[in-house]
Amino acid sequence: MNASEYLPNDEVAIIGGGPAGMQTALALSERGFSVRIYEQKEQLGGHLKGWHHLFPHGVAASDLLGQLKEQVLARAVPLHLGQSVDRLQKVGAGWALWQGERPLGRAGVVVLANGFALFDARRKEEYGYGLYPSVLTAADLEAVFRKEQPWPFGSDRMAPQVGFVHCVGSRDLKCGSPHCSKLCCVTAVKQAMAVKSLFPEAQVYCFYMDLRMHGLEYEELYRKAQVDYGVRFIRGRLSEAAPGQGKRLHVKAEDTLQGRPLHLQLDMLVLMSGMVPAFLLEQQERAVFLKEPVFGSGFVPVQGLLAAGSVVQQEGLFASGACKGPATLPEVFADASAVAREVEQYLKSLKAVGHA
Amino acid sequence: MTPLLWKDYQKEVPDNHYFFVRSCIRQTFFPGAEAALLDILRNSLGLDVFEDRRHTTCTGIAYHCDLVPLETIMTVIARQLSLMTEAGYRHLLVSCVTSFGIYLEMLDMWQHHPEMLEQTREALWKSTRRSFELPVALVHTSDLVYHLRKPIADRSPHRLVDKSTQRALRVVDHVGCHYAKIFPAGGFGGAEFPSVLSGLAETFGGEMVDYPERRHCCGFGFRHYLLQENRGYSLSNSRIKFESMEAFAPDLILTNCPGCNMFLDRWQYTLAEMSGKTYDREGKGIPVLSHEELAALMLGRDPWTLGLQMHQVQLEPLLDKIGIAYQARQKYSMLAGAASLPGEPSVLKVSFQ
Amino acid sequence: MPKPDFGFAFAPNRALDLSAPLLPEVQVVLEAEPSIRACMACGQCAAVCTAGAFTPLAFYRLVLELRGGDVAAVGERARHCMLCGKCQMTCPRGVNIRNAVLLMAALAPPKP
To answer: For residue A131, with 0-12 CB atoms within 10 Å meaning exposed, 13-18 middle and 19 or more buried, which class applies?
Structure first.
């Protein structure tokens, strides 16, 4: 084999500069590997850039993001911003990275850390997202908390009526997303409490199917929301949001615990849009494509419990973080270390075979 | 993923050469409507719309009441299609929305269960010696009127605008359940945001008003309406719609299904008698028009020839707002001479001259 | 023309209107016993309820119906409670059920 077909084996390319990408880069860099990050936007951070405060303790998202970026810069990890990898071509035991017809570089190992997309809430047409200005997604509400967007109701509203709808585009076969997005429930509770803190006279309702408060302190947050903040939880789906009087919305839902339909007027409706795949991984014999997802696309498939970072059917391709499925930030950070370990094992195994 | 939104869905509607099948309810309760539509399509727009006198009811009402079994209605539909085939047409134009839903349902069943199609072919052959082809296009008359809304509007002297104030008239729509709720691909805009009536009203300059119970069923319910004792259930559903639209003060209710048209019109009288309440500010009720009645009025057809005197909620207030001239004395003139006036309701205000 | 007898009548919409403000009597109960807010309708109270074996009493349902404003039904059913205390013993959220039930029963005092 020609030496020019290989790059030094310990070059790791990480696709995605969000929390998963940054943490994986740090973990590998600390172990002495040469890593670089390809990020499609001009800024690092991924979705974390858009959040205001994080559950369960209300840590400012910008603080966490700041810390991560600082560490990445301190380790002088080379950053390729504004570069969106859409094809990986196998070259010998390594990879060539491409953006369309433009070559972006080569590496011995590639780690996919390009995260998730948020479900396009316009597809749940009955909720009127994109049609009625009072309907927001959870991501939009974070932007409101960050003062990047105005409240959809007039500033004279001291006691707004606000509703949160759980499971929008999750657990929904009609939308092609059968999975649970795992962190929308705790996000809804967190956001409901935040709204109540800002508007103590507000009436806040959470319309849920199940309350999945799996993480540490999440259940306590739920109780706090009920008892200390007076958030009302109604078990049942919303059938539709229609324009009501003025700028208000008229929503109809079922209270399954009482077995009765209900309706109410809201000043703001927040849809908990689920986490869905950002891309479709199309695998061929010597190439891997990152394509636009289609209806029912799944997340990146990995080997299993012991090798949970290694992409199925590919040597030298790993996946870290939420591109494999919904995950919270602590899980993403833990995953990054685990994947870094797998990458290290893999690279050691290559050296053991005795490549030059 | 680039979203495909139902509300942007545009159904494909052929421009010409239709085989027309009538509606039981529309013919009976709104006698001028179909005649007006055929006149508009054939004479104003020069289209080829063929009707075979031997065609029958689709038996949809009886089927939905469990009085007619599935095999029977399939054969009846097959016979209608055989008349269409015999006349050389492949585009079916249906007047009633329930009927339209029936045709969609049968075609869908035949597509998924070819053995049922074969059984139907055999049943039709044995009973009538007829055979049929499946239609290439299945179109409701409101689809066609929507599709042709610009040519119709171009020929229309009238608009849905209050002549004295130049304010657009407020229109609420009610699309029949069987139009797109069961087979969303059968209707413009799918099930949540059908545009077949709202687009029509807007083309005539009306202001579409959304109301919370817009998608609620009128409550016709077939078996619920058939027996007098059950009718309260049907009535209660229409009442939910009226209670919801009242706050928005509409000038007009626009429908495409004749059953819905009948219900939303008649029940205003019934509710007024039962509860003393009407849903407009003057105690005259909210006028209800179907898509063909609206098109005919906009084109300048005479309201009484159109059969609008048969409506329970009187149309004169709306006609006056639009500025349509009518002969008050001709209202109850029959071909055989003047008829006696109908009895007057105790609550709903009607105008008799 | 005399009013006709139609032979049928209409029924009101059974949907609950959540926008209607809470009745003052209901607010009084919720303020007097704020732990009611912690109820998550898990059903533990109903599962152990002595009266629940023979009557429609289920505390979590009383909480739901209280918020719905059905004060008369809540008061009447709350009176079935035998005050055995098993519900309070098992409630995983620590709702002070005995006090809550007595407050609810007071909503519809027995007729003399």
So the answer is: middle
